[in-house]
Design a protein that fits this description.
The complex is a heterodimer of chains A (about 190) and B (about 900).
Chain A: E1 2-9, E2 14-19, H1 27-38, E3 48-49, H2 52-59, E4 67-73, E5 76-82, H3 88-106, H4 111-116, H5 118-128, E6 129-130, E7 133-134, H6 139-160, H7 182-187
Antiparallel strand pairs in A: 1-2, 1-5, 3-4, 4-5, 6-7
Chain B: H1 6-15, H2 20-34, H3 40-55, H4 64-71, H5 76-89, H6 100-108, H7 113-126, H8 129-142, H9 148-164, H10 167-178, H11 185-201, H12 210-219, H13 223-236, H14 241-257, H15 261-273, H16 279-298, H17 302-315, H18 320-324, H19 327-334, H20 339-352, H21 358-370, H22 378-388, H23 406-425, H24 431-444, H25 450-463, H26 468-479, H27 482-487, H28 501-512, H29 520-528, H30 537-560, H31 566-581, H32 590-612, H33 628-631, H34 652-656, H35 667-670, H36 686-694, H37 697-719, H38 738-752, H39 755-777, H40 785-789, E1 802-803, H41 846-849, H42 862-870, E2 884-885
Classes of the chains: A alpha+beta (about 190), B mainly alpha (about 900).
């Protein structure tokens, strides 16, 4: 099972936190701990975080050994905390699927998209994972489902606010975009290359 | 009125980075206002803002009711905001959750699929046992929903419900099983996923699914699902041996054909954990698996290296020989710049250790601790992070490489200790080497592993008699190393990474095996002079004791070949001891103080005796020392006066009466319970205290006083000549033996020289009694009467074990344990000495003969018996060690008298313990 999904940037500011099993401790120290362990790791190292002090941090909430799988895209870290029921390499692929889905939904996604549309990111994640179990892994299926629900939300918003000019869900994107993640997602080859 | 929406809030946050807390406080105030409005849009926007702030670590539990309001909105875009907020913020004990039951039921059965999807997603997150019970029928019905999209979600949500409400599984199992034949691949995948999770808790219940799963495995091409099915089989296989046979062909096929490395890896992993590699048929598969994994080790992809190490750990126990050829490759992984890989390699290496490679592995790990780590320097990190993220330079700061962190060093150091000591040092062939490793570790670990090193040092030295000489020589070196002591001074060594505890072991070994010390004076100086006196009290306590032991041995040694020329030397050393110990009698630590005071008194006596010593043996001892009992100390001629000062043998029997042997863990349990001792009986009868409590106040107190007096009187009676008798007896009442009695007699005599000490302590007892009397009448002072009753130890009532057949004390000097010449076993070091490890430790011999423990030999673990049978091991108990005999001469009633706790009263002047002296005596 997937215990949590975290996104934070290279300064350690959380952009999305999702805990599928309740944490016994505070979530913020955990994020800080994981960030402090991940940030000094150069890109050439493996995508699994293993440190002696980590298990005690994670182990307090779940009995068995959990693994931290992460990937770095431009200015963002995508961190999945999973247990033995998940395949390590599979989760790496899943992170890739997640980023690709974000990329399709936002068209060349960048950190600011995640900042200003954090609710949308949650909805997209909700099409990938439900309650810690993988719901769908096909990018096409995911983006189709994302589009449908986005459309539904938009319609619902428009009927409620006939005069609004699309400020609500899926609103216009900021013009001050930074490096898009997209060019990276194409370059990164998934380990499994399923 | 202008309201901020989420975007405004985020913009504001980004704009006011300097004064974030102020901005957030203001925003929170606004939110508090906004959630109270009737405008649903505004309320929802406020809840969304709150959800964002919750991610940043701010509390939103106070808003749970508003969240439910937003959830219940009929508008989908608001509803999804509400569900999101609920999923993020609700806990299991959130009270408004019970308000959501009907809402969820309504949403789950809504006509619009998006509503249902949102509700299912939300339910998976917030489900509680109550919600689970209420939703189970609806969910089971939804497993057959017409839309595949909803079915998929329902299957996953059903699992979450089962987690909270296990009864649901029984109701929905057959329906869930049907989903394994669902036409939609997504639903099928979700179902497999759910079964994979379920089977991890209870594999046996899901063996019946094997045929269906097998069918899916052979027909599907979805790698995601195949991974899950393979994982599922990995869990099931250990419980159904027939599965292995069935699975072998398809899995072998997958391993050789699949292009997806993740699937290949899972297949290999399942083969290993599913026990498919056993037997002749499994051998070739095992070879294939190891070859595949070893190829991963060579791969440039660090991820593959990591998982290969992860899987190889599991194959070591069954096929260690297969890994032998990759040993060097695995060893280099220990040096990998990636900490994650190092950790895994460390695991694997620990599993691979055997007698042949232990030394090289330990040396390599040690070198890691010893060398400053340069493989993961800051320059590399900086370059890498710059490369991966242009424009960001702050993260390049890397003050300490993670491989140098204390926790990593602790892991590494404790791993060294762990792999070497596994199975009672089964893999250690050269114990002198291992001792030097332990001492090196104390120097290089720079991690709080001191207690572990200490314990192993003592353990090894006691279990392996041949290394004691070497251990002592290393200890002497350590104790004399001022830089080591300074490095770990208590004030700048907060986390104990200086390993000061090793000094404890060093001192203990020096004291216990002092016959191996060559330069007594140097060791005593290291033990009693600064910087040693600045160590922690626990260590100083051992230092003091060891110093006394070393002196005692040295003095006995001198006496055995006494010439009068030695007298100045002895006097000088006694002075040295007195000077060294005296400051410690003022120590603030009670243990140090007491030991120092004890030793000082003993040395005062020795000093007096030495001063009175005359070259010619003459009976002019005025101190009553020509007592027959002291003649027992003279090994040469019991009747004639010895040539040397008698006090030379004063300390020796105090410390050297018994050899220090390893004791078997079961030894304590194997000691037969003495006849007539009822462990289940109440020590303090309960009924009496109840009766006491019921009595009239005034008479009650009087009654207790009387009772107390009675007890005191009895105590006096029993203690008999306690004033000059044996004030120290209670300290070790568990087993006073012949020589101890002699020692006590000596001590008593020592104390008679200072009657003022006893008088002083008696006076303080009197004062205490007076104070107690006053308190008794003070209505505001509450004290426990029952506790008071237990105030004084009745020594005679404590069951003791008498030790029969002890060698007479006069032979002490001749016993092999105490001779000053080196024992024959410690010959000069040979390249590969034959070490005997006392593995099983000492057992009370009477335990086998005793009738009380039903099967004392059976309680010994079979492991130990096996070890002893196939290794040449020294006899567990020394022949000089007499069997314990159940006591016969101590009178004992069927129920022992209540055990009383002695309140130790410290005499301020002389720092001496006086027991068994009650106020009633005065």
């Amino acid at each position: 099972m997937i215990h949590s999904v975290l996104i934070f940037n290279t300064s350690g500011v959380p952009r999305l936190t999702k805990f599928y099993t309740p944490l016994r401790s505070e979530s913020q120290p955990l994020i800080r701990k994981i960030f402090s362990l991940i940030s000094p790791r150069p890109a050439s190292l493996c995508n699994f975080l293993d440190a002696p002090e980590l298990q005690s941090f994670l182990g307090s909430k779940i009995g068995e050994e959990v693994r931290v799988v992460y990937r770095n895209y431009a200015t963002l870290y995508f961190v999945f905390v999973v247990d033995g029921a998940e395949s390590e390499l599979g989760i790496l692929d899943l992170i890739q699927v997640f980023v690709e889905s974000l990329d399709r939904a936002f068209e060349n996604v960048c950190e600011l998209d995640l900042v200003f549309h954090f609710d949308d990111v949650h909805h997209i994640l909700g099409e990938l994972i439900q309650g810690g179990l993988v719901l769908e892994t096909n990018v096409d299926e995911i983006s189709e489902a994302v589009q449908t629900s986005q459309q539904t939300r938009k319609e619902s918003f428009m009927t409620a606010n006939p005069l609004a000019l699309g400020v609500g869900a899926g609103g216009p994107r900021s013009s001050t975009l930074q490096t898009p993640l997209g060019w990276l997602t194409n370059k990164l080859t998934g380990v499994g290359a399923r | 009125m202008w309201e901020r929406n989420l975007q405004d809030l985020i913009r504001g946050l980004r704009a006011s980075k300097k004064d974030e807390s102020k901005f957030i406080a203001k925003a929170m105030d606004e939110i508090r206002q906004e959630v109270r409005t009737k405008d649903m849009e505004l309320k929802a926007a406020a809840v969304l803002k709150l959800t964002y702030l919750e991610m940043m670590g701010y509390d939103m539990s106070w808003a749970s009711f508003y969240v439910v309001e937003v959830m219940s909105s009929p508008r989908f875009h608001l509803k999804s905001m509400g569900y999101l907020a609920a999923a993020q913020s609700f806990e299991q004990d959130t009270d408004v959750l019970m308000l959501t039951t009907n809402l969820l039921k309504k949403d789950l059965t809504a006509a619009t699929p998006s509503d249902v999807a949102v509700a299912l997603n939300g339910l998976s997150q917030i489900v509680t046992p109550d919600l689970g019970r209420d939703m189970t029928p609806t969910l089971i019905a939804m497993l057959n929903h017409s839309r595949a999209n909803i079915r998929k979600r329902a299957v996953l949500a059903f699992y979450k419900v089962v987690l909270k409400y296990p009864e649901a599984l029984e109701l929905g199992f057959s329906r869930l099983k049907e989903k394994l034949e669902d036409p939609d691949p997504g639903v099928l995948c979700a179902t497999v996923n759910v079964f994979c999770e379920l089977s991890r808790q209870n594999p046996r219940d899901y063996l019946s699914l094997a045929p269906q799963l097998f069918h899916i495995m052979t027909t599907s091409s979805n790698n995601w699902m195949l991974i899950k099915i393979i994982k599922l089989f990995g869990v099931l296989c250990p419980h159904e041996p027939r599965l292995v046979k069935k699975l072998l062909p398809p899995i072998t096929d997958l391993i050789s054909t699949t292009p997806a490395i993740s699937l290949l890896y899972e297949c290999v992993h399942t083969c290993i954990i599913g026990g498919m590699l056993e037997g002749a048929s499994g051998y070739s598969l095992a070879k294939t698996c190891v070859t595949k994994l070893a190829a991963f080790l060579e791969d440039s992809d660090q991820n593959l290296k990591y998982i290969a190490l992860l899987a190889l750990v599991k194959i070591v126990p069954s096929h260690p020989h297969l890994l032998a050829e990759y040993e060097s490759r695995i060893l280099t992984s220990i040096d990998d710049q990636d900490l994650s890989i190092r950790m895994r390699a460390l695991d694997l290496i620990s599993a691979m250790v055997n007698r042949d490679n232990l030394q090289s592995i330990v040396q390599q790990l040690l070198s890691h601790l010893a060398m400053p780590d340069s493989s993961l320097g800051t320059t590399v990190t900086a370059a890498q992070s710059l490369q991966s993220a242009p424009g960001r330079t702050t993260t390049a700061k890397n003050p300490m490489s993670p491989t140098q962190s204390t926790s990593y060093r602790t892991t590494l150091a404790s791993r060294i200790l762990q792999i070497a000591s596994a199975d009672v040092y089964a893999n250690v062939t050269d114990f002198e080497w291992y001792l030097s490793v332990l001492f090196d570790l104390a120097y290089v670990a720079k991690a709080p592993v001191g207690p572990a090193i200490r314990d192993q040092l003592v353990d090894v030295s006691i279990r392996v008699p041949q290394v004691r000489r070497y251990a002592v020589s290393l200890s002497v070196k350590l104790l004399g190393d001022d830089t080591f002591i300074d490095n770990g001074r208590a004030d700048d060594d907060v986390d104990g990474s200086g390993c000061q505890e090793v000094l404890w072991a060093g001192a203990l070994l020096c004291g216990e095996f002092c016959e191996h010390i060559t330069d007594v004076r140097k060791v005593l100086a290291a033990l009693l002079q600064p910087p040693a006196t600045n160590l922690s009290p626990e260590i100083i306590s051992v230092y003091l004791q060891s110093a006394a032991k070393i002196f005692s041995h040295w003095a006995a040694d001198c006496a055995s070949h006494w010439v009068e020329d030695l007298l100045p030397d002895v006097k000088e050393l006694v002075e040295f001891m007195v000077v060294g110990v005296t400051p410690l009698t003022a120590s603030s630590d009670i243990e140090v103080q007491e030991r120092a005071a004890n030793i000082l008194q003993l040395f005062g006596f020795i000093r007096a005796d030495l001063a009175a010593h005359r070259p010619k043996p003459a009976p002019q001892y005025v101190n009553g020392f020509a007592d027959p009992s002291t003649a027992a100390f003279d090994p040469a001629a019991p009747d004639a006066e010895p040539l040397f000062p008698k006090s030379m043998y004063l300390l020796h029997p105090l410390f050297k009466a018994y050899a220090l042997n390893p004791v078997a863990p079961e030894a304590q349990a194997s000691i037969p319970i003495p006849e007539g001792l009822d462990l289940d009986a109440w020590i303090v009868p309960q009924a009496r205290s109840v009766a006491d409590g019921g009595a009239d106040d005034e008479s009650d107190i009087k009654g207790k006083k009387k009772e107390k007096r009675d007890k005191k009187g009895k105590g006096k009676e029993k203690a008999g000549g306690s004033k000059n008798g044996k004030p120290k007896a209670s300290e070790d009442a568990a087993g006073p033996s012949e020589d101890r009695r002699a020692v006590e007699a000596e001590l008593a005599r020592v104390r008679t020289y200072h009657p003022s000490a006893i008088v002083e302590s008696l006076t303080s007892f009197q004062l205490k009694a007076k104070r107690l009397e006053e308190m008794r009448d003070d209505p505001y002072y509450i004290f426990d009467d029952r506790l008071k009753r237990n105030d004084f130890v009745d020594i005679d009532s404590i069951p003791v074990v008498r030790l029969d057949g002890l060698p007479p004390l006069s032979q002490d000097g001749d016993s092999p344990h105490r001779v000053s010449t080196p024992p024959s076993i410690s010959r000069p070091r040979t390249p590969q000495p034959q070490y005997t490890i006392i593995r099983d430790g000492e057992m009370p011999t009477s335990s086998t003969a005793a009738t009380t423990p039903p099967a004392s030999t059976e309680t010994t673990p079979s492991l130990l018996r096996k070890v002893t049978s196939d290794r040449p091991v020294a006899p567990p108990a020394l022949s000089s060690f007499p069997p314990y005999d159940a006591d016969v001469d101590v009178p004992r009633t069927s129920t022992p008298d209540p055990i009383k706790v002695t309140r130790v009263k410290k005499a301020t002047g002389k720092k001496k313990r006086t027991k068994d002296v009650t106020p009633a005596e005065l």
